[in-house]
């Protein structure tokens, strides 16, 4: 494995690992706040048990999220010193604010986790909400930094120099809003479906049914609302990408030839040599509509883009298909769930709906990973779109492959331990949290 | 604004050394504690730092963010030449952070606890060792921008007697801080004595490592003596640190523990002050006399302005909240060993 590929793989691995924990860290505090609120309002002990059980899980995830995030802030320099030397001062604004957000989050978490029966109960509740709000804020900020890589702003690039830096403009770049919105909703979708799925499984198994039903209801409500909003926000993202990164859009859709009234492809295997896509279902005009809101409009294809600036088409295309596929599937489940809540109450008691949720457990996180693959691989060969190539940013240090193997082993073992601990948490619900 | 940013940088490093250091130290103490006493050490540690655990480690993040936003050349140069020790330190941070949490939140208490404990203790040693190595290497003059072999560019930049001694010295300081810190958390005379002994042990350790550092500096022709004693600030700092150390030991034998922590904190602050004062603003010294300076290698005006404002704004929110957190749990400590919270 050459050093450049190794560095990219290590970055992808670390980010792909971290994003799981950050989604949970951003969203779970809100689930807990709801359960906690019901406990304070209704005095039903089951809500307290749910809050406490969740908070243990969150502590585990938070610690793993924090260390993997710490690793990332070093890795940016360890792997991409050429990038950070120039980018640091420009896209640093969100990171410096993010530092504050993290700090507040860590402090509030201290209050929340260790503050049971010590503080005024509403103050204690409020610290939990603060954990969530600052988590969301840090997520949005760091996405703004990533958006800058997609849509650089706030400086003049003259003869290889980065002049007239304006960190505020850089932060509010063109991609900022669509990415932050889409990512925030994605975190709710992914965490909501994952948590709902686990509790649905426990209900099906007939264990601590009341406990798991309450948990399920909270998680499913958040997840399903978000899953219905997500395709709408995805549409905003797609229109945005069409304007600022036509190469990425073309790769997402394996759209080799510029044309009017372009068709949207569902599935299909792109052949990059022959510049065609086999076995795809074509929806005529829909790509034009997705990209520009008009069935007749022209969509730029890869033929208009210099070959040395093409992103990897196949990976981007598959990843996009996966994201959209998962998105549609979860939207369907959500629609069924809301039908059940409002019109068909008896569905709630029949196992098939719960089984659907169990089946959907991993879909949200798969979509998140796929979505980031679209964004990041679709930006290649640029690390700063149109300004700096990824290959020019990589560290000169040889032997990165070994570092990649090492981190792969570390993250794989961490993943195993976290899953193992989560399994034990769930297994112990009956003894620790819900003794009835 | 540049000076505001530099002050924040220095302060975060200091706070990381003091707070993060105390909790690395707690792990180091575990490593040097006989089997029977380990459990007490662990419980004391947990009730002392559980709630502020996450916050202590944020200082490192703040320092790194300041470096990469405000001083990108320094950040990227260190990232390249000190890639290997940085990676090892990161592995230590991963292992420590997760092991600390896992051992308290694992729903089932069984043999896994031994695994978490040993990982925690060992990584508590490795992480500050490499932090020290990194700091030592930055000023050792061993980083060679002209290096053309793998060994000279990526290994000998950090692997030499001086930086290893600085690493060991850092470990000893952490152990010392933690012992002093934990004395204040103990419930009975027996434990108090035990931690006092630990403090003594690490104090002596720090002195030995300190001598080692000076010896290594002498051998490798690093003008450390000149840096430390060649100016008034350094001399005053060293003398007052030594006096406060004597005072501290006097108080300890008198059984008065109220002032111990501030005194230990003062000593470490003085050590950091002397070692950074003389070659400020240069924080990376290259082989052959080149250097990277906080004043000359900072970001552009607007960046520093924004960074400084962000930091000031941040501290308005963070500091009161942090003090309140520490205060609440000082006033009414966690029940030692309570797993339920
Ligand atoms: C639960 C997760 C999830 C779901 C169901 C979807 N997405 Fe997504 N998508 C993401 C999670 C995600 C993400 C992981 O959050 C990304 C990566 C970067 C970003 O900002 O969001 C993303 C990126 C992303 C991008 C690239 C944005 C950019 O590079 O700036 C586009 C065009 C879409 N999405 C479009 C869609 C569409 C049309 C969907 C229709 C169903 C959809 N997404 C569902
Ligand atoms: C957490 C969610 C994210 C995921 C899953 C993710 C995923 C990826 C992937 C798959 C790559 C490799 C692309 C390739 O080489 O083909 C990559 C590269 C990279 N990403 Fe992201 N990314 C995320 C967010 C971010 C953010 C927030 C930043 C920065 C602020 C960032 C910075 C980078 C950098 C510097 C590279 C390496 C250069 C490159 O390959 O272009 N990423 N990421
Ligand atoms: C889209 C990508 C990202 C999102 C949404 C995100 C979000 C989050 C969130 C919500 C947390 C809180 C910890 C938790 O709850 O587990 C966190 C932790 C952290 N993240 Fe990320 N992050 C992303 C990428 C990055 C990148 C690229 C970096 C580094 C440059 C980074 C650095 C950190 C650090 C240092 C922490 C630890 C903070 C602490 O101790 O609380 N993150 N991240």
UniProtKB/TrEMBL annotation, chain A:
Single Gene Ontology MF annotation: metal ion binding
Annotated TM spans: 15-39, 60-83, 95-116, 123-149, 180-204, 216-233, 318-340, 352-372, 402-423
Domain of life where this protein originates: Bacteria
Membrane topology: Multi-pass membrane protein
GO biological process, one term: aerobic electron transport chain
Keywords linked to the UniProt accession: Cell membrane, Electron transport, Heme, Iron, Membrane, Metal-binding, Transmembrane, Transmembrane helix, Transport
GO cellular component terms, A-Z: cytochrome complex; plasma membrane
Cell location: Cell membrane
Family: Belongs to the cytochrome ubiquinol oxidase subunit 1 family.
Full protein name: Cytochrome ubiquinol oxidase subunit I
UniProtKB/TrEMBL annotation, chain B:
GO BP, sorted A to Z: aerobic electron transport chain
Family affiliation: Belongs to the cytochrome ubiquinol oxidase subunit 2 family.
Predominant cellular place of this UniProt entry's protein: membrane
Pfam hit, one: Cyt_bd_oxida_II
Gene Ontology CC annotations of this record: cytochrome complex; plasma membrane
Signal sequence segment: none
Record-given protein name: Cytochrome d ubiquinol oxidase subunit II
Highest taxon of the lineage: Bacteria
Record keywords, A-Z: Cell membrane, Membrane, Transmembrane, Transmembrane helix
GO molecular function: electron transfer activity; oxidoreductase activity, acting on diphenols and related substances as donors, oxygen as acceptor
Membrane topology field: Multi-pass membrane protein
Xref: InterPro entries: Cyt-d_oxidase_su2 (IPR003317)
Transmembrane segments: 6-32, 53-76, 82-102, 114-138, 158-181, 201-220, 232-252, 264-286, 306-327
PANTHER family cross-referenced by the UniProt entry: CYTOCHROME BD2 SUBUNIT II
Cellular location(s): Cell membrane
């Amino acid at each position: 494995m050459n050093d450049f590929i190794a560095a990219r793989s290590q970055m992808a691995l670390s980010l792909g690992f971290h994003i799981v924990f950050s989604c949970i860290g951003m969203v779970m505090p809100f689930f807990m706040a709801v359960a906690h609120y019901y406990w304070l309002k209704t005095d039903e002990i089951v809500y307290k048990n749910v809050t406490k059980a969740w908070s243990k899980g969150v502590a585990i995830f938070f610690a793993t999220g924090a260390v993997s995030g710490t690793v990332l802030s070093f890795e940016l320099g360890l792997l991409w010193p050429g990038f950070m030397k120039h980018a640091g001062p420009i896209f640093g604004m969100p990171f410096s604010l993010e530092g504050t957000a993290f700090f507040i989050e860590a402090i509030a978490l201290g209050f929340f986790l260790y503050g049971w029966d010590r503080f005024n109960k509403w103050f204690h509740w409020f610290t939990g909400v603060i954990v969530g709000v600052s988590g969301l804020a840090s997520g949005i900020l760091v996405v703004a930094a990533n958006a800058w890589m997609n849509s650089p702003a706030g400086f003049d690039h003259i003869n290889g120099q980065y002049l007239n830096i304006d960190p505020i403009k850089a932060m509010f770049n063109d991609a900022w809003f669509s990415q932050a919105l889409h990512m925030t909703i994605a975190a709710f979708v992914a965490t909501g479906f994952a948590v709902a799925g686990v509790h649905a499984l426990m209900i099906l198994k007939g264990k601590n049914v009341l406990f798991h039903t309450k948990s399920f209801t909270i998680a499913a409500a958040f997840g399903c609302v978000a899953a219905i909003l997500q395709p709408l926000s995805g549409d905003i993202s797609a229109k945005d990408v069409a304007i600022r990164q036509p190469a990425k859009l073309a790769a997402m859709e394996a759209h080799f030839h510029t044309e009017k009234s372009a068709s949207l492809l569902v599935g299909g295997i792109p052949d990059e040599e022959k510049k065609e896509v086999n076995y795809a279902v074509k929806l005529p005009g829909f790509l034009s509509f997705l990209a520009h809101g008009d069935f007749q409009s022209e969509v730029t294809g890869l033929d208009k883009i210099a070959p040395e600036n093409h992103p990897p088409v196949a990976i981007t295309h598959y990843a996009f298909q996966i994201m959209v596929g998962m998105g549609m599937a979860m939207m369907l489940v959500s629609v069924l769930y809301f039908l059940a809540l409002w019109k068909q109450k008896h569905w709630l008691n029949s196992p098939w709906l719960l089984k659907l949720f169990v089946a959907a457990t991993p879909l949200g996180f798969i979509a998140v990973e796929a979505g980031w693959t679209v964004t990041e691989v679709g930006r290649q060969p640029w690390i700063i779109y149109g300004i700096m190539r990824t290959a020019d940013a990589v560290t000169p240090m040889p032997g990165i492959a070994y570092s990649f193997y090492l981190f792969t082993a570390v993250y794989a073992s961490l993943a195993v331990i976290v899953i193992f601990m989560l399994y034990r948490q769930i297994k112990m619900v009956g003894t620790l949290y819900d003794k009835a | 604004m540049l000076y505001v940013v530099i002050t924040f940088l220095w302060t975060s490093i200091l706070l990381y050394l003091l707070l993060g250091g105390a909790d690395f130290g707690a792990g180091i103490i575990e490593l040097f504690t006989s089997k029977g006493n380990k459990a007490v050490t662990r419980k004391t540690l947990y009730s002392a730092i559980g709630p502020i655990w996450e916050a202590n480690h944020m200082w490192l993040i703040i320092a790194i963010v300041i470096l990469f936003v405000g001083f990108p050349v320094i950040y990227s140069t260190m990232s390249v030449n000190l890639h290997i020790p940085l990676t090892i330190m990161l592995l230590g941070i991963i292992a420590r952070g997760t092991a600390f949490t896992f051992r308290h939140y694992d729903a089932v208490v069984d043999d896994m606890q031994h695994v978490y404990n040993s990982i925690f203790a060992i990584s508590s040693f490795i992480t500050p060792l490499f932090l020290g190595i990194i700091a030592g290497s930055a000023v050792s003059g061993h980083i060679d921008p002209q290096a053309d072999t793998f060994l000279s560019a990526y290994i000998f930049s950090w692997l030499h007697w001086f930086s290893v001694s600085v690493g060991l010295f850092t470990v000893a300081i952490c152990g010392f801080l933690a012992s002093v810190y934990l004395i204040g958390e103990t419930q009975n005379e027996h434990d108090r004595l035990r931690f006092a002994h630990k403090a003594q042990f690490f104090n002596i350790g720090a002195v030995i490592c300190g001598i080692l550092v000076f010896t290594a500096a002498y051998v490798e022709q690093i003008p450390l003596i000149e840096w430390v004693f060649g100016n008034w600030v350094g001399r005053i700092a060293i003398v007052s640190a030594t006096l406060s150390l004597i005072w501290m030991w006097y108080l300890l034998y008198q059984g008065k523990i109220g002032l111990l922590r501030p005194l230990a904190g003062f000593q470490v602050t003085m050590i950091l002050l002397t070692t950074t004062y003389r070659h400020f603003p240069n924080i990376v010294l290259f082989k052959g006399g080149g250097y990277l300076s906080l004043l000359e290698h900072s970001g552009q005006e607007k960046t520093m302005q924004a960074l400084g404002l962000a930091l000031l704004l941040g501290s308005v929110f963070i500091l009161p909240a942090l003090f309140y957190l520490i205060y609440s749990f000082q006033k009414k400590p966690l029940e030692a060993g309570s797993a339920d919270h």
